[in-house]
Each structure stands twice: as structure tokens, then as C-alpha cells.
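Magnesium transporter CorA
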Amino acid sequence: MGCQFYDKSAGAWVAAERYTADGLFLLTPEQVGRCPQLEAALRHCVEQRLCCRHEEITLRLPVALLEEDAQFGTVARMAHLTLHHTPRSLAILGEETLIQPLQQDWLGELRQSAMGEVLQRVLLNVIYSHERVARVLVERLQALRMALKTSMDNVELRQIVVLNRDLGELVIALRETGLILRDALRATPGESPIYPLLDVALREQRRIEEGVNLIHERYLTVTNAYNGIVQNNAHTVMKVMTVWLALLMMPIAFIMPWHMMTPLPLEHWRYLWFGLLAYVFGVTWLFAHWARKHGFFSM
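Structure:
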């Protein structure tokens, strides 16, 4: 995908050789080298996330995406979208997975919109991406809570590790977005036309951050529940192993005296061996039946 320019008169996206200081542009990182007007601002923005010079503002914001993993299913991934805004232009820089949905979804409908309105809509789209990912993580949490009720293996533990990574990245990215927007708001004069737009975006970011914090609290509840289940399962396994050890020790305890050089009752009885076997297995069966009845073998 090359540099794309939105032609308002035609209402369509057209290919452009380079970025100019007028209009709406979509670029991928490969085109930055051809745009000397953007290169310096973007280089500074990579380090600082925010660059304000006179009426120009450049933001580098984290965007939450969903992708399929062969082992864990749907997982979260963080990418970055860079916005360079001037009173007459807006350049949107990002990978194709971010640019193409913007181009196909709603940017083409903004034929009569000013650059400030386009900037606000892009900012809200970035913020709402975290909300979309958060909804998916909530569904994964609900499914994981149901699976934990009957869990006896490590599948759920691996899912918790992946979910912990996704939630951590989501919380960090959302807070980073809030910090960038707050810094941009402080660096923007109050009479600037984009000041109220940034203020609206910041309020939306705070609302979504509160929701993500609630999701994180639910995640901690699930993690604590899993830890309790693991401990209960460990106690159950130890209980069952103790019962089996007792069952194995009973034949040994009854047979060992006949291996000693001591006189024992009925030692000359011709059916003694069969009587011992019947006695050992009978007592073992009775003890096993009693243990099963009282739930010692239930996992």
C-alpha cells in the first residue's frame, strides 16, 4: 500500500507520491523517508510519544488489536498509530492492518469534515480499540471461570498466563494513551480549536480505563480462585495417594511375619496360604469399599 490522499472533490482515495501540507493522508512506515516534512517530527515522536510545535501536533498512540494464536486462540496485540495534525492537514501513519480498516470503514465519509473533526474521530477510534479488546477478554474470563470449576490439569494455568500478559499490555497501553492526551492537552492553548476535541478524547479514555480496571479486578478474582483450586486438588491427590499407600501396606504387614523364624499359630495347616490370601484381599477390599464410600477416591 502506497501513500493515499483523500480527494474531497471526487470523494475517493487516490495514490500520492508524497505527503503535502494540505489534506488527509494515510501512510505506512515505508513512506516516511519520502516525506521530509514528517520525518523529523516522527523521529522525535518515537522517543517522546508527543511533539507540539506551534500549531502542529504529533501523537504516537498504542492501539489494541486482536489476532488468532494457534495455541491460545484469540489474543491481544499492541500496535502504534502516529497522527500528525496541522490546521490544514492530517497524516495518519501506521501498519496496513491499522490503515486499511480506517480507509474502508469511515474515513471516506468525512468529505465535508475539518481536520480537527477527523483527528478527534481517529483519537476516539484508538481509544475504543481498547474497549473492543476488553470485551473479548471479559468473554475469555467468563469461559475460564467455568472451566476452573472442574479443572485438574494445567491448560487453564497456561491460559491465565496468556490472559495476564494481554491484560497487562492493555492496561499499560491505555494508561500511556491517557498520559499522552493529558500532555497534549496541557501543551495546547485553550483557544485552539483542537483543545475541546482533545478534552473529549481524554474523558472517553478515562471512562474506558475505569472499565478496564474493573476487568483487571475480576481477573485477580479468577486467579485467586484458580490458586485455591490448585491447593484443593493437591490436597485431594495427597489424600488418594495416602489411601493407596495404606492399601499396599496391608498385604505386606500380614505376610511379613511368615518370613520370620518364629513359631506362629496354624503354621502347619495345609490351607494356611490360601487363608492368608483370602484374609489379606478381603480386608483390603473392605477398606477400599469403605474409603470409596466416604469419598477418599473422588478427584
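Residues 195-255 form the longest helix (61 residues).
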